[in-house]
Amino acid sequence: MPAPQDIPRKVAAGEGWQWVRRGFVLYRKNPLLLSAAFAMLFGVVMALGLVPQVGGALSELASPLMVAGFMAAYRALDDARDLELPHFLAGVRGPAIPLMTIGAVQIIGALLIGTVMKNMGFEAEAFVAAARTQQDPAALQALLNEAAPAVLAGLLLFTPLMMATWFAPALILFGGARPATALGVSMKAVLRNWAALLVNGLALGGMLLLAALVPLMLGLLVAMPVLFGSLYASYQAIFAVWSDETPVLRT
Predict the structure, then answer these.
(1) Which of 84, 89, 91, 247 is deepest in the core (most CB within 10 A)?
(2) Cα–Cα distance measured from residue 70 to residue 76, given in angstroms and rounded to the nearest whole number
(3) Is residue 110, in this structure, part of any structural domain at all?
(4) Cα 77 from Cα 137, distance rounded (Å)
(5) CB 183 within 8 A of CB 168
C-alpha cells in the first residue's frame, strides 16, 4: 500500500488561476521583504553563474535552495507568523544536500537534452551569431527551419524534467522526501493535475510578460515572488497531506 504522501490530490482546472490569486494574497502580507529577498537571492544565483567554467552548474545547484527559501517564507505567512530573513535560508540551513541533488538532476538533464539536440544538428552558437549579425531574413528563416526538429525534441525532453522537479523542493523541505521520491511524486502530481497546471502556467506567463514591460525589470520584483507564492498555493492544494492536513490556504 503506497504511503499517503505518494498520492497527490487531483484538483479542478480552475484551481490554476486561484493559485495565482492566492499567491498574490500572500505576497501582499509583506511585499517589501519578499521583493527584497528575491532581488538578493536572484543576485546571488546570477553571481554564481558568472564563475568561470563552473558558474552554470553552481547557479543550477543553488536554484532549488532559493525555491525552498520562498516556500518556507510563504509557509510562515500562511501560518500568520512574522516573516524574517532566516526563513529564506531554510534550504541552506535544512536539507541542503537533497535540494542540491535536485539541482544536479537539472544539470544532468539539461546536458543530456543539449547533447541530443546537438546530435540532431542544432548549434545554438551558430543560431545566436546569425541573429546578432542580422543575417538575411531568408537565410535566418532557413536556419530556423533546419533547427526546428531539434528544438521540438528538446522541448519534448525538457517537459518531463520540469514535471519531475516542479514540486520536488517543496516535497523535500516540507515532507522530508528523499530526492528520488520527490522527483517521482512531483511527476505524478503534474500528470494528475495537468489541466490546472496548464491554466496556472498560462496565467503566470501572462503576468511575467506584463512584468517584463516595466522598465529596469522592476515588474519582476513583484511577479517572481507572486510566482513562488502560486507554487506554494499549488503545493498546499495538491499535497496538503504532507503538511499535517493544514488548510489549503488562508486568505
Answers:
(1) 91
(2) 10
(3) yes
(4) 51
(5) yes
Give domain status of residue 212, yes or no. Answer: yes
pLDDT tens, residue by residue, 105-162? 999 999 999 899 888 877 766 666 666 665 566 666 777 777 788 888 989 999 999 9
Amino acid sitting at position 240? A
Tracing cell 519531475 back to the chain, one arrives at: 164
- Return d(Cα 217, Cα 232) in angstroms, integer: 23
Counting Cβ atoms within 10 Å, is residue 23 exposed (0-12), middle (13-18) or buried (19+)?
A: buried
Domain that holds residue 87: 4-115+163-243
Is 157 a member of any domain? no
121: phi then psi, degrees, rounded to nearest 5: 100, 5
The DSSP call for residue 246 is -
Instruction: Give how many domains the chain has, as a whole number.
Output: 1
Q: Tell me if 90 sits within 8 A of 68, measured CB to CB.
A: yes
User: Is residue 35 a contact partner of residue 241, using CB atoms and an 8 Å limit?
Assistant: no
Residue 18: its pLDDT value, please?
95
The cell 553552481 sits on which residue?
58
Q: Between 132 and 244, whose confidence is greater?
A: 132
The C-alpha cell 504522501 sits at 5
Q: Is residue 11 part of a domain?
A: yes
Helix (H) or strand (E) holding 50: none
pLDDT band per the 50, 70, 90 thresholds, residue 52: confident
Q: The whole model's pTM is what?
A: 0.86
pLDDT tens digits, one per residue of 167-184 = 999 999 998 999 999 999
